[in-house]
């Protein structure tokens, strides 16, 4: 199969701020007639800006709100800090949600997972729900090449609205971890995680699938979540502590580049693409380590497949709010 490479040229224009914010808009020069999704960006990372960027999205989190984030593997330290996210989580009266891991470690069962969440300070700011503590359920995958179903924690069905609050960073297998990784592997139960990692072959073994098949399976599981939620979901990513390793690593490599900021969108594909674009366009020489991790794992293919599934767009408008 021939691969088609699309080069997106970004231009910069300044628009009159509507809410007292200076806004810088990056827009693809080959925009289609349909409006491209917006990605909002604060360079300054603070709890106040986390709330402001949520409000900028214009989609209110109502009802029983799940806030999906990583509580971090014991031994790690790069995960989103409770003091940073506390204001947003409490503003929406959210419950922090997770599912048990499928690789052993300190979060592979509910008791140890809750202990890790407590040790890392999350239970002090909100209730924490390990969603597969009492079982799992299946969501259909529409149009997938590898998955026909996504197996998630049973308690996910208890929530009316989901905030995908991601720590953007590298990932040993996926190249990078952002919104799509957080909502696919993150919301999957232990069995569901194995199903994704094995590219639909097994719930008991990770198997040994081709790399692109694994990346495509991640995108397909994420689409099942997006389809389930409809408009009752939004996506926020904090690009700080930019290690090449994930928060699931108990001893991640120290970051080699500086923080980028907080980004948010109603489109997870656009959000992940914007995060990776800002890494590549950074003047920080340390970016080479993260770029190598992304490209050596063919990480951008996740976004290519998600876009092909109709989950979102890699074209976007970047709106700077600082």
Description:
The protein is an alpha/beta fold and 322 residues long. The chain has one domain (33-320): LarA, N-terminal domain (Rossmann fold), CATH 3.40.50.11440. 30% of the residues lie in helices and 21% in strands. The protein has helices at 47-56, 82-91, 110-119, 179-184, 190-197, 211-229, 268-281, 287-296, 301-308, and strands at 10-15, 23-28, 38-42, 65-68, 95-98, 128-130, 136-140, 149-153, 161-167, 169-171, 175-177, 233-239, 261-265, 317-320. The strands form 3 sheets. A 10-stranded mixed sheet has the order 1-2-14-3-13-12-9-4-5-6, sandwiched between helices. A hairpin with a 3-residue loop joins strand 10 and strand 11. The relative contact order is 0.19.
Number of domains: 1
- CATH-defined fold name: Rossmann fold
The CATH class, by name, is: Alpha Beta
* CA-atom Rg in angstroms: 18 Å
Class by alpha and beta content: alpha/beta
* End-to-end gap: 44 Å
